[in-house]
Design a protein that fits this description.
Elements: H1 6-14, H2 22-35, H3 38-53, H4 55-63, H5 68-78, E1 84-88, E2 93-95, E3 98-100, E4 105-109, H6 110-113, H7 148-165, E5 166-171, E6 176-177, E7 186-188, E8 191-195
Antiparallel strand pairs: 1-4, 2-3, 5-8, 6-7
Helix pairs in contact: 3-5, 3-7, 5-7
Length: 196
């Protein structure tokens, strides 16, 4: 039952001149599900943990809910759900005065880049009102995350509703980081929330 959605568009491409193979459609559908689900879930969890650990910044959001959009960008910068990615060098590439040969694996630490003091003033501080800068949590170029817009909308909606429905958010117990995932996430994040 084709509709006006991403999967229908991919299936239509299977029968057009810009063909996608059946395997490419399946791979992209699975990737879209995980890219638009798990990383966004972790973005929201990491943002909640950051707010619980920084009550002053949470207070700023309660006072000025209009800061939700820059706050989401700050959560992406401060504690990104994906801290690093690997890329295979395709052609000779110079990085910081060093030549990398084709076939080498280059590990890009986006979490570190998001804390670069040459780019961000006081990068160790959470600042929900920080002017959105050049955080690289969604990658860049041809590798820019295809779910970035959806992730932003989902996170902004989640935090806007959290602020509208609660008057307090604080740790209820020590959080536990997930150590088995390739994502930066929590396996347990106990929070005490007071409803409005």
């Amino acid at each position: 039952a084709p509709a006006d959605d991403l999967l229908s568009a991919m299936l239509a491409a299977e029968s057009s001149e810009d063909r996608l193979s059946h395997d490419e459609i399946v791979d992209n559908a699975v990737f879209s599900f995980f890219a638009g689900f798990e990383t966004t879930t972790n973005l929201i969890g990491n943002g909640c943990a950051a707010l619980a650990a920084h009550p002053h910044e949470l207070g700023r959001l309660y006072e000025r809910p209009s800061l939700v959009a820059p706050a989401v960008e700050e959560f992406l910068r401060y504690d990104a759900p994906v801290q690093g990615v690997a890329r295979i060098v395709k052609e000779p590439l110079e990085v910081a005065g060093r030549m990398l040969r084709p076939g080498r694996v280059l590990v890009l630490l986006m979490g570190s880049a998001n804390r670069d003091e040459r780019v961000f003033e006081h990068p160790e501080l959470l600042d929900v009102g920080r002017e959105p800068g050049r955080q690289v949590s969604f990658g860049g170029g041809i590798h820019y995350c295809m779910g970035a817009a959806l992730s932003r909308v989902e996170a902004r909606t989640a935090f806007a509703r959290l602020l509208a429905r609660t008057s307090a958010l604080e740790p209820a117990a020590a959080p536990v980081r997930n150590t088995t995932s390739s994502f930066r996430a929590f396996s347990s994040l106990p929070l005490r929330v007071q409803a409005r």
